[in-house]
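Hi X.,

You mentioned you wanted examples for the new student's onboarding notes, showing what a folding record looks like when two proteins sit in one file. Here is a clean example. The first protein comes first, with its sequence line followed by its structure tokens.
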Amino acid sequence: MAAVGGLTAFRDHGAQRVFFHTEIDDSFAGQGLAAQLVEQALADVRQSGKRIVPVCPYVATFLKRHDEFADIANPVTPDALRWLEGELG
């Protein structure tokens, strides 16, 4: 069985994909895996036609450094945060 190196968690809300958590297993730290993971996840958002809402601090920082995704990013709003809180319980 393969080890899980990390994840980026999201919930879809209509045309938005709301990213709320990213983590990498300590055994994979320092290898650039988080950046690769998030880049692939955001490319998937683009392909799906959805938009990104970066509640996760790592995803938000990634977006600031990678403006190639700026055209599909939405700001985090109080409404989005309330919705996410309801989703996650």
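Then the second protein repeats the pattern, sequence line and then tokens:
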Amino acid sequence: MMDRVVFSSTKNEYLKGVFQNPQDIPETYEPVDCDFSDELEFAVIRQLPVEVKYWNVKNELHAIRGRIIDIYAENKAEYIKMSNQTLVRLDRIASVHILNPN
């Protein structure tokens, strides 16, 4: 039996993003808490399958499944890169859910 994989800050498979309502998202990048970035890095290092829900540029909620393969900074903003090459700005992430790795 495999041990359950959880985020250290929430003690479960679910991590809430910075903004839950699209009207709260600023036009320019709003830096995220270091703990949030650390949790995303945990998913990268462990190569965890995740579902990321995020607000697109039209403030519509989208979901994508895969692995986070990179976290990087560009033009004074931070992004994740998913295994299908989708880029998501960190402050536009609504949630990250660790999927069952089996």
